[in-house]
Design brief:
- The complex is a heterodimer of chains A (281) and B (308).
- Chain A is built from twelve helices and no strands.
- Chain A is mainly α and 281 residues long.
- Chain B has a domain of 176 residues: MetI-like fold.
- In chain B, 67% of the residues lie in helices and 0% in strands.
- Chain B is built from 13 helices and no strands.
- The chains are: A mainly alpha (281), B mainly alpha (308).
- At the A-B interface, helix 1, helix 3, helix 4, helix 5 and helix 6 of A face helix 1, helix 4, helix 5, helix 7 and helix 10 of B.
Chain lengths: 281, 308
């Protein structure tokens, strides 16, 4: 802190230079792979669809890949949209129940929800493949969204519970005295108060579902229903085993850009989500 | 755009939940609100765990379905699988290296950007941006970056015979770099939370007592950071033991099957070639049991030392 008020003397600059060089180098190390991928996805390279000069050849390859990249973006958007919506609804109602009501099995259910964190992905996904096949939800986007929502529940339920608990009880009690039902107290009074929690939960659910690889890899068998991460990973070996690195770079950009933009817009919430006590050991 | 300086927020007082129980009728309403959560947990978590238990003691080919109990054949087959011990050893080795690297670097970065100045906020964002990417996207990105044909270092490496994914050690090192790049910012954030929870007056007292920086770090920061270190270690160990995406995309288990993790083995037994859900189920149960034991052990170890 005190360093900022010190005058910019020669000795000060000389003493701080190694620090600036070191931290700048570190920052570059973290950002370089992203910038490099963005730049080289539009730069010329032999063996890609962008051999001469700069341009969007690689993106054209990507756009025409199999069923067309549009369908994969749409699939991913459907999965993400459903997951975010389901996660928000289930964890809001659940968080409200855990924070404001006493009922038989309350603690057991809460602990079981948290236990989802402790169980390996693969351990649950292989039997889920069998169960979802039985009920006709295997190889559907809804099935993937249901599974991803379940994996989001430990974090989101915890987050919504502490968000509701942070709101003074007097707020909803006053509303109920005025004749609100418990649901209209939730809808009209409490929801606006827990908005930061909702944004954090929604952001996490989106990032997780947009990027998830393992669940669709196991549950989706129809290539027209693939999600974007799966499609880009499969696109590498498209032409006689020769990898089209240019198209892969373009795919990474399409995958990463929405996440990075959203992260930069909402990073205060992302950071606050952690700092608000959710991860206090 | 700056990362907000971490501010200490007191957790909601638990007094609210400990208040006298509400009238009975609220119990029904509580269950109604909790019902969706209960349905998800029951149908998509508890039921699958029961099914995987059944699967692990049954003859259950991928396409044939359940053909009846055959215990303990699947467990024998699982342990006899020619990649079983190799994958266990590799997964443990990877887990130890990844955890040590991420904890040390996460803490180092957190100490570097702890105070809130404008430059440090910029640094914080730079370290955090990779964590917005999915692990699969990050793996694909490094797949190109490490490529001997398209990567930025391909010209430098021409003729040296080195390739990032060419030998088992290089492949492991390259994957670890990818993991550190993707997760270091995330662990930095968790460490920052822990550092924020150490009250300022403790540092103040140490300074008055004439402690130097090293002493302060060793005798104050590290002991008071123990809960955070416990949480980050458990998270990192759990995540690393279940590693899949990075190896599936980046190394495909190669070179020479040297980078096969346990979860990759489960996947390949279930869906690639053998299509044996029984053996995959047995492997899953073994991994689940190992994970529970390891996590209980870790929590005990951290508890014991802090005398909680």
């Amino acid at each position: 802190m005190s360093t900022r008020t010190r005058p910019l003397s020669f000795r000060y600059v000389a003493a701080r230079t190694p620090y600036w060089v070191f931290t700048t180098a570190l920052a570059v190390l973290f950002v370089f792979p992203l910038i490099w991928t963005g730049v080289s996805s539009v730069s010329p390279h032999p063996g890609t669809n962008q051999v001469n000069g700069w341009g969007f050849g690689n993106y054209i390859t990507l756009a025409n890949y199999q069923a067309g990249i549009g369908i994969y973006i749409l699939n991913t958007a459907i999965v993400s949209g459903l997951t975010v919506l389901l996660t928000l609804v289930v964890s809001t109602l659940g968080g409200y129940a855990f924070a404001r009501f006493r009922f038989v099995g309350r603690n057991a259910l809460f602990l079981l929800t948290l236990a989802i964190l402790m169980v390996p992905y693969a351990t649950v996904l292989i039997p889920l493949y069998v169960i979802l096949t039985r009920v006709g939800l295997q190889n559907t986007l809804l099935g993937v969204a249901l599974v991803l929502t379940m994996f989001q529940l430990p974090f989101s339920t915890f987050m919504m519970r502490i968000s509701f608990e942070a709101v003074p009880r007097e707020m909803d009690e006053a509303a109920m005295v005025d004749g609100c039902t418990s649901f209209s107290a939730l809808w009209r009074v409490l929801l606006p108060a827990v908005k930061p929690g909702l944004i954090t939960v929604g952001l996490f659910a989106f990032l997780a579902s947009w990027n998830d690889f393992f669940a669709p890899l196991i549950l989706i068998t129809d290539s027209r229903l693939q999600t974007l991460p799966l499609a880009v990973a499969n696109l590498r070996g498209q032409v006689q085993g020769v990898v089209d690195y240019g198209a892969t770079e373009a795919g990474v950009v399409v995958l990463a850009l929405p996440c990075i933009v959203l992260f930069l817009i909402l990073q205060r919430h992302y950071v606050r989500g952690f700092l608000s006590g959710a991860f206090k050991g | 755009m700056t990362v907000a300086a971490p501010t200490l927020r007191t957790p909601p007082s638990s007094g609210q939940t400990l208040r006298a129980p509400r009238p009975r009728r609220r119990g029904v309403a509580g269950w109604l609100y909790a019902a969706p959560t209960a349905l998800f947990v029951l149908l998509l978590f508890i039921l699958p765990l029961l099914v995987v238990g059944k699967m692990s003691v049954s003859n259950w080919p991928l396409l044939g379905g359940d053909l009846g109990i055959n215990a303990p054949v699947n467990y024998q087959k699982a342990v006899m699988n020619r990649f079983f011990w190799d994958s266990v050893v590799f997964t443990v080795k990877y887990t130890v290296l990844a955890t040590v690297l991420l904890i040390i670097l996460g803490l180092g970065l957190a100490l570097l950007v702890q105070e809130s100045t404008r430059w440090k906020s910029v640094l914080r964002i730079a370290f955090l941006v990779p964590s917005a990417l999915g692990l699969a996207s990050a793996s694909l990105l490094f797949y190109v970056l490490y490529s001997p044909f398209a990567g930025p270092f391909s010209h430098l490496l021409e003729g040296t015979g080195f390739s990032f994914l060419g030998t088992p050690d290089a492949a492991l090192g390259s994957t670890l770099f990818l993991i550190v790049w993707r997760y270091a910012g995330f662990y930095m954030l968790l460490m920052l939370v822990g550092l924020q929870n150490i009250p300022d007056d403790v540092y103040e007292a140490a300074r008055i007592d004439g402690a130097n920086r090293m002493q302060t770090f060793r005798d104050i920061t590290l002991p008071l950071l123990r809960p955070t270190l416990a949480l980050t270690t458990v998270l990192c160990v759990t995540g690393s033991l279940l590693a899949f995406d990075q190896f599936y995309i980046l190394t495909k288990g190669g070179p020479d099957n040297s980078t096969i993790t346990v979860v990759q083995l489960i996947y390949s037994v279930a869906f690639q070639g053998q299509n044996d859900l029984g053996v995959a189920g047995a492997l899953s149960v073994i991994v689940l049991a190992a994970l529970v034991v390891i996590n209980i052990g870790q929590i005990r170890a951290f508890r014991g030392r802090s005398e909680v």
